[in-house]
Amino acid sequence: MIETLNIPETRKQYYRRLLHENPRRNLVERYALFGEHYPDFCRKRLSYIPEMMKDGWVAMSLSDEGMNYAFTIGLEYSFGHPEILIASPNRPVKMLHRMVELLAARASGGERFAPELDYGEMLRTQPDFSEVEGTTVFREYGENDLDNYPCGYLYSFYGYFADRDLTDNKLPMLILELDFPMRPAPPGGRLSSIMSTPKLGVSPQL
User: Residue 56: its pLDDT value, please?
Assistant: First the structure.
């Protein structure tokens, strides 16, 4: 998406090379570029980048239409590990944010999480998450998940800093859904179908 910026072609070519030769420097220089030429967009959509420069990733959290979720930006870019998103209709967004931070710290340190594996026991060893019940199994972010989890900041980052074409709406991300009466979340209007289903065996809100 560097092609969409109103800068000379020679400069666009420079940023394309920089992305592959020195991703960390690419992050710094492209952020400076946005600050210089697109200050309003930089302030509104890229305010997390300075924090991301410190550790290579940053955690974001949102509460949207009764659904709480938190996700990373930068794990795949900096460490080659898929981004992580954790969602729940019941648990506080601050708890999901802490859980994402725990998993992201492990992933940035070399641990690798994979879809279809249960990480419940690992989470329950942490005092903050000892009451998490049931299975905690990741799945890959799919095309329909844009309806369920519209991670606009993440799309902006991978478009403008990593030159990714995300027209298929598929992010490099693993999703963990807690307390859901069905997995995965149904595409299109999650609350109409999820929240109307009786919540059997849902663990207490933390």
Answer: 95
